[in-house]
Structures are given as structure tokens and as C-alpha cells.
Amino acid sequence: MEHPKLAGAAEEAFAGSEIVGMTAWVLATRAGGEGEGGPAAALADAVRGRGQHNPLLWPEEEAQRLLRGTSVLPQLPARRAEVALAYERIATHESIDARALGLTYDAFAAAFCDVLASAVYLPSAECFALVPTVSTVMAHGDCGGGGANGGGVGSDRRRVAEGGGGSRGVLVDYDLESECVVVVAEREYAAGDEPRLPWGEGRNSADLALTFGELDAEGKARDDFLTFQFGMVQNDSLYTVKAGVLAELGYATDGQEFPVFEDRFPTQLLNYLRLSRVTDIGLLAKLSMETDNILSQINEYEILQLLMGDVRERLEEFENTDTVGEQQTLRDAELNGREELATLLRLGEKRVLQGTMTGVRTRLAPIRGVPTKGGGMQDPNADLAEMFESFEQLPKRIATGKIFDGLFED
């Protein structure tokens, strides 16, 4: 089931890129290459439209409008550049007549997203593949509008597989002995039950949107998360010491990523930040990446304020931080597939950020206030709090022209 010229061009241009190779095969088969009218053509047609809602295919204006504030939007330029490079290398290959094959960028990008949404990973064979029947099990429901209850990107086919004892539904693999793809049920199925493939485990909404072009309607079921990047302070007098500690533990000194979830953030994230801001070398002995140990009250206050600032900055990138409105939109509005995907994505990421903000504030509460004899609360770090609040307000004061307010008043 290979088109010799396209397959050869794909292999030469992108050795080892199975997704690009399968994209070339799908395009050739649809254009009337080998296997026309047979099972190859049926499979190529079966995956058509599978990735039609992938943000990689959206016009720029639509992406900017619908994905504002999400973690998908800043990823689009690099992802699109990769697709464009793949197309250019294949379309300009000496063995290819792009016009005769109808090989345009739009056709290539659409087929690429179809393959990306349909490919199945076979662990024993260590490769991705398009598999008849299995790929159609993973197919979309109705891809039209209708909001969260109308199929499309919120289809039940993409919900997390259910079952007792942590079962995920079915597993797909390649059996080396029989040289066949096998589907193994991880729980009992009754007649008429729909087998479900694993969906979204260990992946966040942004990753799923850019891979499958769809999301399940309830990201909580997947334990949705966002990633944040942190680094050491370059001009820190203890930078060399800290870099050595991190190297030994397997962490980077810059651009180190950590996930944050709606109801928690990892201890390693807190300890990384504690290390980045500690100024007393004697406190390093108290640090353990696996244990939640506060090094000092001032250090803890500083890193929580910094984390809160990062979360607030991400929230402010959205047009608004309202989650109730997003839920109402999903219930009541007549949404097309792209609008539904974007609404689900915004809702999920806002929930994660707001949950993280709540978690940081909860940790800050006992540090910021202690009981006084008068029964009130007194902030032991009032001066430090005022300094951080001033820093946080700087961008707004600059934007509103109020940066110099009160500067020349008596």
C-alpha cells in the first residue's frame, strides 16, 4: 500500500517520520495511486476529516480570536512551520510532480492532521500505523455543530475509557508471532458495547487539541494540567553551587518545565523555586526535591508570590477569566466544531489556573497573617508584601499612564 514516488520522497526528506510518510501515502491513494478502489482507498477515505478541527488548520484571525490566552496559541507558529517544511521538502523533491498529484499545501496540511488524529501507536513494533477497523473505532462522532451535547469534539468516543480496577478499555498492539495487529480488552464487554481506546492519559488539553483536533467534554477526568517554565537567577552569587545541585538531580538551570494541576502542583516545583531564591548557603542542607520543606518564611513568601504572579499573568492573557460563561456557552450556544473545541480548551485551562491560584493563596495565608493580641491579623512580611504588590502593579500603571501619579505631590 505504498505510492513509490511519494513514499520515497517522504522517506528521503524525513527519514523515520512515520506521520509524514503516512500523510504522503494517504494523499497518493486519494489521488488515485496504488490500491485505488480497494482496502487502501477505503482506509484513506475513512480517515478523511478526522483532523478537520485541528487548530493547525485554522485561519490566523480565527485562531487569535478563539484561542486567546490558551497555551495552544503560542505553539501554533512553530507547529505550522514544521508542517510547511514537510510539505516543501516533499513537493519540491525531484521525483514528485506536485501539480499532477494535486499536492497543495492545504491538501497536505489537511491530510497530515487526518493522519495525526488517526494513527495508532503499536508498542511491540515501535511505530505508528493506520490500522483498518481500529482507526475507525477512534473515528469522530458527528463533527457538526450543536454544542457540547451534539457530538463533534465532545464526542463520547473520546471520553476516558471506563471500567473497574483502573481498566482503560482496550489496548492495541502488534503481535510479532502472528504478524497481525491485535486488540485486547482490559475489561469485560457485553454484546453491543463500544470498545474504547485509551484517551488522553498523561496528556493535557493543548496536546490533545493539536494532535486529535478534539477534546473530551470534561478535562477533569484526564487530570488536566498546564506547564510552567522556571530557571535559576543568572547573577546569583550561589548560581554555580545551585547549578551543581540541579545537575546532580537531573534538572536544568533554565527552562525547566513543571506541570500544575487544578488541585495541586508538584513538590518538585516548589523546591526548585525555593532553591532558585535561597540566599543563605546554609539552608541548602534543608532542601530535598522530594520533601515539602520550607527553607525560611521569607524564602517561602517570595516564591509563592512569584508563582502567583506567573499564574495571574497567564490568566490576564484571556479576554476574561470567567468559567461560568464558558460553561453556559457550551450548554446554550450553537457552536461549530472549532468554537466548541476552543471553548472547552479555554474552560479547562482557566480551571487549572484558578485552582493553582487558590492553592498558592492557601499556602500564603498562614505566612501572610498571624494572630495578634487584639484578635486581628498582622502580616509579618508587610514590607515584603508591599514591595511585591508594587512590582505586580507596574505593568498596569504604565499602561494606564499612572506610573508617575503622586510622585511630585507634597
TrEMBL record:
- InterPro entries hit by this protein: Rubisco_LSMT_subst-bd, Rubisco_LSMT_subst-bd_sf, SET_dom_sf
Give start and end of each Rubisco LSMT substrate-binding domain. Answer: 234-353
Q: Which Pfam families match?
A: Rubis-subs-bind
What is the name listed in the Swiss-Prot or TrEMBL entry for this protein?
Rubisco LSMT substrate-binding domain-containing protein
- The organism of origin for this protein: Prasinoderma coloniale
Identify the taxonomic lineage of the organism of origin.
Answer: Eukaryota, Viridiplantae, Prasinodermophyta, Prasinodermophyceae, Prasinodermales
